[in-house]
Amino acid sequence: MRLPIAISEQSAEPLYYQIEVQLRALIISGSLQAGTLLPSIRELASQLKCSVITIKRVYSDLEAEGLLRTKQGTGTYVSHVEKESREEQKHSVVNEAIDQLLEAAERVQCTKQELEMLLKEKLQHYEP
Amino acid sequence: MRLPIAISEQSAEPLYYQIEVQLRALIISGSLQAGTLLPSIRELASQLKCSVITIKRVYSDLEAEGLLRTKQGTGTYVSHVEKESREEQKHSVVNEAIDQLLEAAERVQCTKQELEMLLKEKLQHYEP
Amino acid sequence: MRLPIAISEQSAEPLYYQIEVQLRALIISGSLQAGTLLPSIRELASQLKCSVITIKRVYSDLEAEGLLRTKQGTGTYVSHVEKESREEQKHSVVNEAIDQLLEAAERVQCTKQELEMLLKEKLQHYEP
Amino acid sequence: MRLPIAISEQSAEPLYYQIEVQLRALIISGSLQAGTLLPSIRELASQLKCSVITIKRVYSDLEAEGLLRTKQGTGTYVSHVEKESREEQKHSVVNEAIDQLLEAAERVQCTKQELEMLLKEKLQHYEP
DNA sequence: GTGGTCTAGACCACC
DNA sequence: GTGGTCTAGACCACG
After folding, report:
1. A31 to chain B: which residues are within 8 Å by CB?
2. Residue A1 to residue D99: CA distance in whole angstroms
């Protein structure tokens, strides 16, 4: 199985973090259904051309968040999460991003009007 | 002179980065006028209770960006930046933050409608 | 790996600057191919008998110029720079030095003839 | 008396050094004849809009080089230097600049041919 | 193992 | 007084 995850060499974000964000999104969005068996650590590491240790960290982190579940000797599965809970998490991810946007805007003293204008323009091309 | 800069011990962001972001914002927003003499590195270090070297790094980085100008034996000054250029930088900072928001939303497959709803709610409390 | 860099205690030039100039030259000249893994900051520091921080500064500065690329936990690599761009940079380095020469000559009112004579003499021994 | 000296705020060169280089050139080139009374420290400082301490340093340095001569209570004069000696110094100033050029060229592995080409081009516009 | 950050403290150059 | 450089040494994050 091949996960639709891409890592950027250019980005300053640490490898493990780039992967976590994308895998988390796949689960929260429902693209990966509950119970799905993820690729093994070694397999994913080889797919993404990164260290096994990095993938291990990703799986551990997401397991700690309750999104994944590891069964000894079988592999790592997507946990069963209520649809409502998934919606909640989705909103919380987006809300966090919004907060960061507002912080940045506030720091450079961007007026509400300016901010709305810039947002409107960008939102036009938003095609999820 | 006392710069309105606050640093958070909790934040995972490195010290120097927190300070850079805020000082950059003060300049771009025009709160600090061109030609303003900034506090000496030693003074600011003592104000923010951090090492002289950390402040030195902040000033150097911002000088490399062209926002500051330091003269040895004299002090560090805010560079003269065109108002239009400031506006541009302001918008580019905000647009970057917007891009990150849209990326996050897209990843969790947030619909345009949902996103607009969440934005609308948060924007109500935006008071720059 | 051992970089052919020599530092002079006599020179008034700061340590970090001496190293930067030489490493930059190695890259621009193509002596170090794109993708080459440089020695770790600790290793180079020990080779050149200077502080780790000094090397760190060198690598950071050259990274800011786009000549190097560092990946945390991995190491520091020579960036891929177009051959034409390298030629350009080479010429720009030399042209800058020529400008400084002409300025100096002009200041002491050295005639074109004198200058050419002195140049001719020195150029005889130029063996790159 | 007004010396034709200009200082650049942009330059990274220290103030005292910029002034020294120019004043030295005025003397070596013969633009300032032996015996000429230079402006007082305070006067020159006010002309160049810099600190008295900076000019004091310039005069001291050039006096140490034997180019100037200070008489208590009267002022600072241009020393009498043999014409041949002046020529020598002129050449030594220029030769030093040439050496720096060659070093830079060598570092980036500029071939003799390339160097000569760049030099020829620049020399065309040399009008002392 | 790698680089990233931060500290305290020193000494120097400049104005 | 200012900034500029450099040190030794520590601790953390990443792979």
Report:
1. 109
2. 64
Q: What angle do CA D3, D7, D13 make, to 5 degrees?
A: 130
A108 CB within 8 Å of a chain B CB: yes
**CB-CB contact of A19 with A58 (8 Å):** yes
Whether A55 contacts A48, CB under 8 Å: yes
Q: Does C11 touch chain D (CB under 8 A)?
A: no
Length of chain D in terms of residues written: 128
C16 and C51 Cβ atoms separated by less than 8 Å: no
Q: How many CB atoms lie within 10 A of CB C60?
A: 16
Q: What is the pLDDT of residue C121?
A: 95
How are beta strands C68-71 and C75-78 bridged, if at all?
Answer: antiparallel
Fold of A15-78: Arc Repressor Mutant, subunit A (1.10.10)
Split chain C (128 residues) into runs of 10 and give each run's mean pLDDT. 88 90 92 93 93 94 92 92 90 94 94 96 91
CB atoms within 10 A of CB A20: 21
Q: Is the C-alpha dihedral spanning D7, D13, D19, D25 positive or negative?
A: negative
Cβ contact, residue pair C115, D97, below 8 Å: no
- Cα–Cα distance for residue pair A128/B112, rounded to 1 Å: 7
- Letter for the amino acid at B59? Y
Specify the 3-state DSSP secondary structure of A2: coil
d(CA B104, CA B109): 9
The beta-strand segments (E) located in D1-128 are 68-71, 75-78
Say what the pTM is. Answer: 0.87
**Residue positions counted in chain C:** 128
| Calpha distance D58→D72 (Å, rounded) | 17
CA distance D116 to A46: 52
Q: Which residues contact C72 (CB under 8 A, 6 or more apart)?
A: A14
